[in-house]
C-alpha cells in the first residue's frame, strides 16, 4: 500500500480535530457544560443504566455518518431516519437529550449543537458511573441527513476479524477496538442476540460449551427458548459482576467464559485479542486511561465544523430550510 494514501485519511482527521477545541462555548454559552452535567447527574441518580444508553447512542451515531447527531432525527411519513434501522430499534435516552437541548435553548439559543450534547453527556455519564473524568473538544455541528439505509454497524455475533473490519475502516487499531468494546462494562443485551448460545449453538441443539455452565443455566431460565419482539424480549447484563460501574471487570468476566455476546467471548478466545483482554483485566487504571483516549477519538469521527451542517433548534428535527426570496 502507498504510504501517502494510507496516511491521507488520518491527515484529514487531524485537520478536523484541530477545528474542534476545548472550552469551545466559553464565550458564547459559558454554562453549557454545567447544564448538561446537571441533567445527566439527575437522570443518573434515578436511572444508572443511562450510561449504557448514552454510550450506545454515541457509538451508533458516530459509526454511521460521523458524530453529527443524525441518530436523533425522528422519522416522518415521507422520510425514514436512522432510528428506523434495525440496529437502532433499542437505542434509548433521546428524552434526556431533548431535556438538555430545551434548557440550552433557554440559556443561549442556537449555540450548542445536538452532536456536542451527545458527546458531553456521554462523557459525564461515564464519570458518574465510576469511569474516568476527561475533557472533550467541542464545536461539532449537526448533520442534515439521516438515512436508515446507511446504518451498517458491527453485530453481536461477529468474529474478531469481521468486527475489526468495521473499526479499521474508521481508523481504529485492534487494541482500540478491544478498548471500545469495553463499553460493555455497563448495560444489557436482549436475549435474542445470544439465545442460540443457550439452546442451539451452531445447530447442535446444545448450549455453547465455551460459556460458563452456571451462567448458561441462569440465562436459560431468564431468557426462555422463544424469540420475542424486542420490546418484550428479556435482557441480561453484559458484565456479570459490576454491571453499573465503568471499570475493567468486563474483561475478567470474558476470560471466565461469562461474556454473553459471541463477539465478547471471541475477544477472549482469539489469539489476536486475548492479550489485550488479559492486559486490561489486570490493569484497571490502564484500561480507564485507554478508554477515555479512545472515546475522545471516536467523538471526533467525521465531525462537521465551521459552516458545515447546522445547529438544530430541536434535536429530533432538521431546521427548516429558508425559502428563497422572490425577486422584485
UniProtKB/TrEMBL annotation:
Catalytic EC class: oxidoreductase
Catalytic residues (positions): 60 (proton acceptor)
GO biological process terms on file: hydrogen peroxide catabolic process; response to oxidative stress; response to stress
GO molecular function: heme binding; lactoperoxidase activity; metal ion binding; peroxidase activity
Binding site for substrate: 154
GO (cellular component) term, any one: extracellular region
Reactions catalysed: 2 a phenolic donor + H2O2 = 2 a phenolic radical donor + 2 H2O
Entry-linked CDD domains: secretory_peroxidase
Keywords: Calcium, Disulfide bond, Heme, Hydrogen peroxide, Iron, Metal-binding, Oxidoreductase, Peroxidase, Secreted, Signal
InterPro entries, alphabetized: Haem_peroxidase (IPR002016), Haem_peroxidase_sf (IPR010255), Peroxidase_pln (IPR000823), Peroxidases_AS (IPR019794), Peroxidases_heam-ligand_BS (IPR019793), Secretory_peroxidase (IPR033905)
Pfam families reported for this sequence: peroxidase (PF00141)
Binding site for heme b: 184
SUPFAM superfamilies: Heme-dependent peroxidases (SSF48113)
Listed PROSITE patterns: PEROXIDASE_1 (PS00435), PEROXIDASE_2 (PS00436), PEROXIDASE_4 (PS50873)
Binding positions for Ca(2+) 1 per the UniProt entry: 61, 64, 66, 68, 70, 82
Enzyme Commission designation: 1.11.1.7
UniProt subcellular location: Secreted
Cleavable signal peptide: 1-18
Chain sites annotated for binding Ca(2+) 2: 185, 239, 242, 247
Cofactor: Ca(2+); heme b
Cofactor note: Binds 2 calcium ions per subunit.
Family in the record: Belongs to the peroxidase family. Ascorbate peroxidase subfamily.
Function: Removal of H(2)O(2), oxidation of toxic reductants, biosynthesis and degradation of lignin, suberization, auxin catabolism, response to environmental stresses such as wounding, pathogen attack and oxidative stress. These functions might be dependent on each isozyme/isoform in each plant tissue.
Protein name: Peroxidase
Originating species: Amborella trichopoda
Amino acid at each position: 500500500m502507498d504510504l501517502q494514501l494510507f496516511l491521507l485519511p488520518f491527515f484529514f482527521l487531524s485537520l478536523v480535530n484541530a477545528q474542534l477545541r476545548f472550552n469551545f462555548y466559553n464565550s458564547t454559552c459559558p454554562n453549557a457544560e454545567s447544564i448538561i452535567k446537571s441533567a445527566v447527574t439527575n437522570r443518573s441518580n434515578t436511572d444508572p443504566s443511562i450510561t449504557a444508553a448514552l454510550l450506545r447512542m454515541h457509538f451508533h451515531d458516530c459509526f454511521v455518518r460521523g458524530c453529527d447527531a443524525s441518530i436523533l432525527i425522528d422519522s416522518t411519513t415521507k422520510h425514514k431516519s436512522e432510528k428506523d434501522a434495525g440496529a437502532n430499534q433499542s437505542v434509548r435516552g433521546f428524552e434526556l437529550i431533548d431535556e438538555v437541548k430545551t434548557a440550552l435553548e433557554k440559556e443561549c439559543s442556537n449555540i450548542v449543537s445536538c452532536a456536542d450534547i451527545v458527546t458531553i453527556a456521554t462523557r459525564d455519564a461515564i464519570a458518574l458511573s465510576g469511569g474516568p473524568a476527561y475533557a472533550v473538544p467541542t464545536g461539532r455541528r449537526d448533520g442534515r441527513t439521516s438515512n436508515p439505509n446507511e446504518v451498517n454497524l458491527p453485530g453481536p455475533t461477529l468474529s474478531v476479524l469481521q468486527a475489526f473490519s468495521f473499526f479499521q475502516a474508521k481508523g481504529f487499531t485492534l487494541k482500540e477496538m478491544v478498548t471500545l468494546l469495553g463499553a460493555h462494562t455497563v448495560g444489557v443485551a436482549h436475549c435474542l442476540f445470544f439465545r442460540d448460545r443457550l439452546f442451539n449453538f451452531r445447530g447442535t441443539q446444545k448450549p455453547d460449551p465455551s460459556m460458563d455452565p452456571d451462567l448458561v443455566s441462569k440465562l436459560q431460565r431468564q431468557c426462555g427458548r422463544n424469540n420475542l419482539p424486542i420490546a418484550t424480549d428479556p435482557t441480561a447484563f453484559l458484565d456479570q459482576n459490576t454491571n453499573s460501574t465503568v471499570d475493567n471487570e468486563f474483561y475478567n468476566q470474558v476470560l471466565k467464559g461469562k461474556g454473553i455476546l459471541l463477539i465478547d467471548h471471541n475477544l477472549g478466545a482469539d489469539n489476536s485479542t486475548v492479550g489485550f483482554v488479559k492486559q486490561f483485566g489486570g490493569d484497571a487504571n490502564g484500561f480507564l486511561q485507554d478508554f477515555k483516549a479512545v472515546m475522545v477519538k471516536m467523538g471526533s469521527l467525521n465531525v462537521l465544523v465551521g459552516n458545515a451542517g447546522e445547529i438544530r433548534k430541536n434535536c429530533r428535527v432538521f431546521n427548516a430550510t429558508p425559502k428563497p426570496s422572490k425577486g422584485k
